[in-house]
Amino acid sequence: MIKINLLPHREEKRKKRQSEFYAMLGLAGTVAALVVILVGFGIGNKISEQEQRNTFIKTENARLDIQIKEISTLKQDIEALKARQQAVEDLQGDRNQPVYLMDELVKQTPEGVYLRAFKQEGQRVIMNGYAQSNERVSEFLRNLSNNSPWLNLPELIEIRSSNLGQGKDTKKIFEFTVNVGIKRPRDKEQAEIAGVSPAKP
Fold it and tell me: Counting Cβ atoms within 10 Å, is residue 22 exposed (0-12), middle (13-18) or buried (19+)?
């Protein structure tokens, strides 16, 4: 019987398999490292691109903020110019207010009412005068309220009985104070267009 020793042959196969295993393990490690490097490189590129986009967005936002501030400043300037223009127009229109006031007082003051003083404060006129009776004062207020295109919202501030003259010439009269609004030309035009009286100044 012949005996053959196969141990060296098996040992060689085992060593060969081990070397192949280590070679495959090394190759897998290399491939894994390359994949990690490539993925990291790709992620780095994506992060860099996103940072560039973020920087661009921040820059554009800052530019837009400056433009918005400029627009806001321009709007304020426009509003200020409009206010100045309106003030100039009001001044030009208000030049004729004393004329309108005197003309309306002549038209609307009934007989038996005598005006002795009046003072304008803004768009309101305070008038002091005498009347023969309470009815004359009521008529005067009605005329100012209903018949005048330039005067509106009259208010009776005070009325009291008083005596005028001395001795036999003494007369009983009613001293009154009336507050009335005077319209600007633009208020009158707007009221005529709208068909309603403007609000109290």
Answer: exposed
Three-state secondary structure readout of the chain? CCCCCCHHHHHHHHHHHHHHHHHHHHHHHHHHHHHHHHHHHHHHHHHHHHHHHHHHHHHHHHHHHHHHHHHHHHHHHHHHHHHHHHHHHHHHHHCCHHHHHHHHHHHHCCCCEEEEEEEEECCEEEEEEEECCHHHHHHHHHHHHHCCCCEEEEEEEEEEEEEECCHHHCEEEEEEEEEEEECCHHHHHHHHHHCCCCCCC
- CA separation for the pair 111, 126 (Å, rounded): 20
Q: Which residues are CB-neighbours of 147 under 8 A, at least 6 positions away?
A: 107, 108
CA torsion 105-111-112-115 (nearest 10°) is 10
pLDDT tens for each residue of 155-196: 999 988 888 777 777 788 899 999 998 887 766 666 666 665
CA contacts within 13 A on the Cβ side of 178: 32
Q: What is the pTM of this model?
A: 0.49
| pLDDT above 80 (res 8) | no
Per-residue model confidence (pLDDT) at position 54? 92
pLDDT in tens, 24-80: 888 998 999 999 999 988 898 899 899 999 999 999 999 998 888 888 888 888 888
